[in-house]
Amino acid sequence: MIQFTKHVLSNGLPLIVHEDPSTPLATVNLLYKVGARDEDPSRTGFAHLFEHLMFGGSVNIPEYDGPLQIAGGDNNAFTNNDITNYYCTLPANNLETAFWLESDRMLSLAFSEKSLEVQRQVVIEEFKQRYLNQPYGDVWLLLRPLAYKNHPYQWATIGKEVAHIEQATLEDVREFFYRYYAPDNAILVVAGGVKKDDVLPLAEKWFGSIKRSMGERHPYPSEPEQQEARELTVHRDIPFDSIYIAYHACARTDAEFYATDLMTDVLSRGKSSRLYNQLVKEKKLFSDISAYLTGDFDKGLVVVEGKLIKGIAMDEAENAIYQELQRIADELVSESELDRAKNKVESTIEFSETDLSGRALALAIADYMGDANLANTEMKLYAAVKREDILHAAKSVFRKENSSVLHYLSMN
Amino acid sequence: MTQLLQPNRTTTPDSKPVRNLSVQEAESSRLSNGVAVYSVNAGFQDLVRIEFLFENKSFSLAQPLVSSTANRLITEGTSRHSALEIAQLVDDYGAFLETEESSDACSIVLYTLNKHLAKTLPVVREVLTEAAYPASELQVYVSKQQQRLVVENERVNSIARRKFNQLLFGNQHPYGYFVQPDDYGKLESTLLSAYHRQHYTAENCTILVAGKVYPTTFELLEQNFGDNGWMSTSTEHGEMGAITAVADRQHYIHKDGALQSAIRIGRPMITREHADYPGLAVLNTVLGGYFGSRLMSNIREDKGYTYGIGSAMVSLKQAGYFFISTEVGADVTAAALEEIYKEIELLRHELIGEEELQMVRNYMLGSFLKGIDGPFALLDRFKSLFLSGLDYSYYRNYLHTLETIGPEEMRDLARKYYDRADLYELVVGVK
Description:
heterodimer; A: about 40% helix; B: alpha+beta; 2 domains; six-stranded mixed β-sheet; globular
């Protein structure tokens, strides 16, 4: 149970405070409701590049990291298709330093040419390190455009191609900033050894006068219902064949999210799960296999991915996957399988809450989903799932015409 | 009132130094059969992490993977239950039973909500004393691991990490041994069982408990692990092998078509017991131990050669090492190397400014504070002392060094330990 209070500033910035008197630390988590899905299809990778630029100095502060380190703090950030999230942790009695830094970069950036130039290069190296110079690194660059034809989830957070990052200009940076980096497009969570009565005046002081967003937000292009199965085969210089099957599924905020999530857990979570026992242990077709729901804010994917044992034919391995997916769509899972999946979710949530920054992020995401208290009530939603709900989720997801299959084969 | 709330954005708010750092120490007790239990009772979630730690006592070149494999497969079936049944016994309660392997020790770690502790501990007891290593499970494991290793050998960073350790410690010792796919093929069930009998005994076990700890926690541990039924039957132990660094300092492994080169530069280094260690930890932080470090500021934030660069010190039981590691664009490999050496030389020849040193001090104190927040972090602090054979006075000494070390002392440490002639250099990729 994460206790919290919520207050919305007059400029639209929600402030959530979670007091934990047992820690001398404080975490400030600032979530901006902007991600790769907000990008122009011809300028992808921008939200993530922008995250890097947020550390290149703001209007009154030449450098973000130095003052935070002097205050004994540490920080990081991540971007995904839906959100960009910044968080820092520091000794609680230095909390105001975090307010000073975070509010100044919400107020305005320095827009430095040098910072843009260097971070473009850093992000290009990140592109190479994580996506191009890694075996199986480009899978999501291929799978996304196969599964999505209209929705911006068709590109990865890093971007479609290196060229898009190379072309980014300071003008693009400015435009993006004023549209998305504003109090009414963010969620502020302060957690740890703090008192809400101290935090609220600090929030008013540092964030209260920042203006609302100038830009308009447009609805995202929706993905039309997939009508027929898609397939892509590529050959790469990799040692083992692998297969990725993506099915369109629900969004993070849909009612069927919980049943669909538990359904993928029955399939592949832990060593007692179905895919692992049937396909890795019994039939010895795969060295690794997993199934998961992406949990995106718009309609996401259920992905089944596996790496084949050398010498096994793709057909045989692929059909064995379909057999298992068919089984969970045809027959009710057992009571014990469902209980097991629920118990795993319960302990995962409990263990994740031992971490202060984990609690802060959970509150921010729940608030973006519509209610910060979901961070506390989601377990009940999981607990309410019945075997029939799992069956229904599997039936609606695992349809041939709803699938996009990537055969990622070894050239050797 | 509103007047008071106008922020001054051009001046840094006052920050207070971190003071009065006190570490909640682990409490020690023993089961009736002598097994030591160290526990940290903290946090408010009603859960617990219990680690069963066993020191590695032997290493054989003929069977280099026997200790790690015996540990990895300990949950894959016993004389009473199949691997699937064991997994179900744990998963039924939403618990996690994980294995951890290092060159010094292997662990079985249970994560569970306290309400399921009584049901999950007997499963741990069963695998510790009755693991059966079925041949079929071994076969699945071997083919999986061989495939993983082949994939790892495609990654410049992974090759660099493993090759670098081999340069520093040689192939005769687990710290340096470079695992080959064939090594997996040599494993046999009977060897694993023999290793299991010899190493997973009460005498060689230490129990580390973190979370919400009750008197019943100890009662359950006593009930499941306090008997004499799993005492050792033999006193024989093998040898760990000899550490021998290679003589050549410069090494290059070419990888056709690599877009990035992995770079490792470093050397064998003193361990935590040595008086210079805390000071070197500060020096390492200045060089590459945090985001504002010299290496990061120059090679990422100024030149954009890499997504990340860092340096670290590792203190193992029998040896230590220091290394810088990064992946850089293949076309800037030479330029990056030059900048790395330049930063090292600067530390040896110029004094660190007081402002930078103060920032590093504060940053490290803040990190230390994070490192003692919550039950798991607190127990991890104890564990690293325990594995090095040190006590909590180490942290008092560390904090004292952190607060008092000056620029001259730092330069002297750099001269003593960062001599280029002592540094090994490895590049994997395209030079």
